[in-house]
Specification:
The chain is of the alpha+beta class and 71 residues long. The chain has one helix and five strands, in the order βββββα.
Length: 71
């Protein structure tokens, strides 16, 4: 889920499990500690590293599924 960080203004991808902590700061998939901006504001500019990591993860999942189907 994208969460905009108060410190850098970027929307970082934060795994759902991070929200169980309810601490106001979360670990994004890029490693950045996100201090959540108010959720009523529009998302900031996407974090490029989060975007790249998300795409890489989903590409690996797609290849993994294809390999299981063909093997």
């Amino acid at each position: 889920m994208p969460v905009t960080c108060l410190s850098d203004g970027r929307a970082h991808d934060v795994p759902d499990v991070e929200f169980t902590r309810a601490s106001g700061h979360y670990q994004a998939i890029c490693g950045h500690t996100v201090y959540a901006a108010p959720m009523v504001e529009p998302d900031g500019k996407p974090c490029q590293l989060c975007t790249e990591m998300w795409e890489l993860n989903h590409e690996q999942q797609r290849v993994g599924r294809f390999g299981r189907l063909s093997g």
